[in-house]
Design goal:
By secondary structure, the protein is α/β, with parallel strands linked by helices. The protein is 41% helix and 15% strand. The strands form two sheets. It has a seven-stranded mixed β-sheet, sandwiched between helices. A two-stranded antiparallel ribbon has the order 6-7.
Length: 274
């Protein structure tokens, strides 16, 4: 008898409930094709299998499921006080988020990850997500919840690029980092702990991105490939380098917040060069 998985991720239901006439008119065979692309069955299988696991246990189970090896250099640089921003480059899309939160959770026992509403599809992670809608206006409740998190003592993880790395100027890298984590670091007196993830997604991911941009299509088609990219990393080794904390007091008026954000980004990529 075939085991039926709970549909934590249900593309067909999302499309039928959409306000977009274009999406609702999409033929069923296209929807089924998209479900295969986003690895809906595989994602739901894992979420169902580990539905009772939370926090570090959930992270460990998923990493074990994919037979991943995590090599973290610089763990000694994690401060004893977790009242910090833990920021990183974003080359993978799912695996780097999983790894970053796993490392911080193991050290401090709690965290809040700045993430968009897509993360809310994973019930195991909901208690740790500080939700931000990067595709539209953030609701007032979300803003108020974020303010409370920034002012708390809980560790915060963040990918300041706001999106997965693309190929830019001949190399794979993040786009310009958003300045908000700098202004919040200063106002909330949070030091910044830099993480650098080594590696990249497949050639297909970057090719789809380049073709989409070449024809002027604004819809980020490559985002649908992120679950596939996640499963491509099965049996792989994920390498991450953790740098020394950067004091919030360093972010003075010699540069704007936007300029300081790019300086922290530069230091993160410098960790990769080392």
């Amino acid at each position: 008898m075939t085991h039926k998985h709970t549909k934590h991720i249900d593309l067909d239901a999302s499309i039928r409930g959409s306000k977009s006439d274009f999406l609702r008119r999409m033929p069923p065979f296209i929807v089924r094709w998209l479900e295969r692309i986003i690895k809906q069955e595989e994602m739901n299988r894992i979420l169902t299998k580990y539905k009772d696991c939370h926090g570090v246990e959930f992270h460990r189970k998923v990493i074990q499921e994919l037979n991943l090896t995590i090599e973290a250099e610089g763990l000694e640089n994690l401060p004893e006080n977790g009242h910090c921003f833990f920021v990183a480059n974003h080359p993978f899309g799912i695996l780097d988020g999983l790894t970053l939160t796993k490392i911080v959770l193991e050290k401090y026992g709690d965290l809040r990850a700045i993430g968009n509403d897509a993360f809310m599809l994973i019930p195991n992670l909901r208690p740790y997500i500080a939700q931000v809608n990067v595709y539209g206006q953030t609701a007032r409740q979300s803003v108020q919840a974020l303010e409370a998190i920034y002012a708390s003592e809980v560790p915060i993880t963040h990918f300041p690029s706001g999106m997965v790395s693309r190929r830019e100027h001949g190399k794979v890298q993040d786009c310009a980092w958003q300045k908000s984590f700098i202004t919040r670091a200063v106002s909330c007196k949070r030091d910044i702990v830099p993480f650098h993830f080594h590696g990249r997604n497949s050639l297909l991911f970057y090719t789809v991105n380049l073709l989409r941009r070449a024809v002027g299509l604004k819809l980020n088609l490559e985002l649908a490939l992120l679950p596939s990219e996640f499963f491509r990393k099965q049996n792989a080794t994920v390498r991450v380098t953790i740098g020394k904390p950067i004091s919030w007091q360093e972010f003075d008026h010699t540069r704007t917040a936007a300029e300081w954000a790019q300086e922290v980004k530069r230091r993160v990529y410098e960790l990769g060069n080392k």
